[in-house]
Design a protein that fits this description.
Mean pLDDT: 89
Number of helices: 4
Oligomer: single chain
Strand content: 35-45%
Largest sheet: 8 strands, antiparallel
Helix content: 10-25%
Number of strands: 8
């Protein structure tokens, strides 16, 4: 996975463990697709493991149509977002945050690759169910959903703090 250089080097996060931590704690991913005429951005649940993002979807709809035409996509997640007073700034406010932006290609995991679909859904479920809950995924459920895999090509982290580490 490549890290793109940033203009604001003072805010750049290049340490993969810190990037992984941001992705691990994020609750919503903003997925950006392009249908050839307009950008299409949607909030979506996700699962992450190094080099890959996983999503699930209905079998048909705008998102699936766009992905089939153009698999290139980007995403953004953010954590620790906090507006703070900043009397010396013209607006009187500042915003603290940590974020990750990534780029890659999304593909639909074929229905006949049941093990890959189950793995992706397990990664997604584990992101939200930290207690290791084993959620049953019967074949009938697998057949009703599309499972999407994004291979991450570029990724960048950014933060503006100070932060109290957890």
């Amino acid at each position: 996975m490549l890290h793109r250089p940033m203009r604001r080097k003072d805010r750049e996060v290049t340490d993969q463990d810190r990037i992984d931590s941001i992705l691990d704690r994020a609750q919503v991913c903003h997925l950006a697709l392009f249908d050839g005429e307009w950008p299409y951005v949607l909030p979506i649940t996700f699962g992450y493991e190094p080099g890959h993002m996983y999503f699930h979807s209905a079998k048909e709809g705008k998102k699936i149509d766009i992905i089939k035409k153009n698999p290139r996509a980007s995403f953004c997640v953010e954590v620790d977002v906090l507006p703070v007073p900043a009397p010396k700034k013209r607006s009187g406010l500042d915003l603290l945050y940590r974020s990750v932006v990534g780029f890659g290609e999304i593909s639909v995991i074929p229905d006949d690759e049941e093990d890959r679909k189950r793995h992706a859904l397990s990664v997604l479920a584990a992101h939200y169910c930290r207690q290791g809950v084993d959620i049953p995924r019967p074949r009938a459920l697998l057949d009703k959903v599309e499972v999407l895999e994004m291979e991450i090509v570029h990724i960048t982290g950014k933060e503006k703090g100070p932060f109290i580490e957890r």
